Each structure stands twice: as C-alpha cells, then as structure tokens.
Amino acid sequence: MSGVLTIKKNYAWDGASGPVLDTQRIMRGSLVHDALYQLMREEHLPQKARENADWLLREICIEDGMSKFNADLVYLAVTCLVKIILNRTCCARRNVMI
C-alpha cells in the first residue's frame, strides 16, 4: 500500500479501541488505522489493504515510542479481532452462533 493519506481536522474518531489507554504512543496509529478501515468499508480501498493497515498501526506505534513488544501485542489484537468479527459475520450469514 502506498500513497498519501490526508486526515482533516475534526475527523470523527474516538481514539484507540478496546482495553487500551489513549496515550501518545497509540493515538496517531489508531487515527490512521481507523481512517484506513473506513476507506475499506466505503470501498475506496480494497479489503486486502487490511493487512497493510494493521501492520502500519504497529509501525506508527513504534515510531511514536511504543516498545516493539507492546506494538506486537496491539498488532496481534487487531488482527485477531478482525478474524473473529469476520468469522461472526460469515457465521451470521449461515445462522451459526459462535
């Protein structure tokens, strides 16, 4: 994934999701990640961009001072969460509860 992402002032975003404190080490990564996921939901980016968006979150967190260990945990959390959500979506279409 390459290009320039411009996020304008007052973009509707609520910080990092889940049991994560909104610290300076995660805020910029969370903002970029949320904006990229919105672009995927609105079909401006292909769904295959998800892997790159998740990895970019990790990289930005490290750039902003997060330890690699914690950034890896953030990366694993978002990638696993997406798989669970996608699985539930697939299961819901088949009337299967998980």
Automatic annotation (TrEMBL):
It holds the Pfam family DUF1353. InterPro entries: Phage_CGC-2007_Cje0229 (IPR010767). This is DUF1353 domain-containing protein. It comes from Nitrosomonas oligotropha.
